[in-house]
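okkk here we go again. third time trying to get the zinc ion bound version out, last two times i messed up the smiles copy paste (missing a bracket lol). double checked this time i swear
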Amino acid sequence: MRRATNVRCCVVCRRAGPKTSFWRVVRDHGSGLVQLDEGMGRSAYLCPTADCLKLARKKRRLGRSLRCAMDDGIYDLLEARLEPGQSAPD
Ligand SMILES: [Zn+2]
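finally!!
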């Protein structure tokens, strides 16, 4: 069996897995804006979990990985995607 080429890893915990199992954050090549799921440009992948999201926010991992200043709004958008009850009280 050929090794899958679409394996990605989480910018926080480095867990590897199929591309589709992560949230994709993209700094779009054209607009320069950071957006979710769509766009052509530099991408960062993150586990869809409260833990990784929290750490990513705290350590500013996405911005670092995308090499740009990132709006906190992206983290809010991702937070809204968490399954209800999954987000840890802080
Ligand atoms: Zn992770």
